[in-house]
Amino acid sequence: MRIGIVKHLNARPLTWGFEQNSEHQVVPENPSLLKDYLLRGLVDVGLISSIECLRNSDVLSVSMKVGVCASQQVRSIKFFKNKKENYPPYRILTDNGSRTSMALVRVLVHNDSGQLPEVSPTDPKIIKQEISIGRGSHMLFGDNALFAEWDPEVYEVKDLAEWWYETTGTSFIFALWASKKPLELPDSFYEDSLKYGLTHIEEIIEKESRLPSDLVRTYLTQELHYEITESDRKGFELFGKYCNDLGIL
User: Fold this and answer.
1) What CATH number did the domain enclosing 58 receive?
2) What's the total number of domains in the chain?
3) Are 60 and 179 within 8 A, CB to CB?
4) Which of 68, 112, 133, 180 is most exposed by smallest CB count within 10 Å?
5) How far apart are the first and last CA of the chain?
6) Does residue 108 belong to any structural domain of this protein?
7) What confidence tens digit (pLDDT) does each residue in 188-226 have?
8) Which residues partner with 3 through β-bridges?
9) For residue 199, is it within any domain?
10) CA–CA gap between residue 177 and residue 175 (Å, rounded)
């Protein structure tokens, strides 16, 4: 089985079982590109941006049992609001790794200000350069957000999951497993990989040498969760409604 896996730390518990199973061929990439791989038949299943599951529901089978989810903090998806420039910004440079996050920041800024900003998917290296000189408002995703640096005199940094929870009272699903119809695998296929990952969580933590172990453990076991809850489902439905109403879908 060719399995498209998200290459960032936030997905490790979901994908660890597949990564450790030599029967599978894993293809690591950003969730935004994995959707394209899936539709082109380059992978059989993929962990893709949740908004792409909404956009492509007619051609994709989606498991609603496990995913990358957050209740009140996600840490790895950040909006850098420039305090020295007009708000809301006309355009936000957005990390091109996650299409869900691109849409979410637009929804949240619209709910906050009444205006829908444009977004420009951008190489995160360029975004980091812009942040370093204090120009513009931006969004970073995944490991790029985890390791971001900024001047607090210039930027107010907002965690998108926390902002979503404050706005809606629901949690959020960032990525889901999907396959191209007619292929539809049982939910247990994905759940078993997660169970393996959670059972071997200390191995995952040990492999991550860029951050303190305690922080990684908190991030993967408390701030993120992977079994989809009723609050996640409600948040997913609400996000779809917002996106549809704003023409983002």
Assistant:
1) 3.40.190.10
2) 2
3) yes
4) 133
5) 30
6) yes
7) 999 999 999 999 999 999 988 888 899 889 989 988 999
8) 26, 45
9) yes
10) 7
Shared-domain flag, residues 60 and 108: no
Whether residue 233 lies inside any domain: the answer is: no
Residue 31: strand, helix, or coil: helix
Question: 146: domain range?
Answer: 77-168
Q: How far is CA 171 from CA 45, 55, 174, 187, 197, in A?
A: 25, 20, 10, 21, 22
The H or E element that residue 132 is part of is helix 124-132
C-alpha to C-alpha distance for 77 and 65, rounded to whole angstroms: 22
Q: What token pair was written down for 134?
A: 């204090």
In this structure, is residue 245 part of a structural domain?
Answer: no
pLDDT band at 32 (very low <50, low <70, confident <90, very high): confident
Q: Tell me how far apart the 2 most distant CA atoms of the chain are, in Å.
A: 53
Query: What are the C-alpha distances in Å from 97 to residues 57, 101, 111, 191, 234?
Result: 21, 9, 23, 24, 25
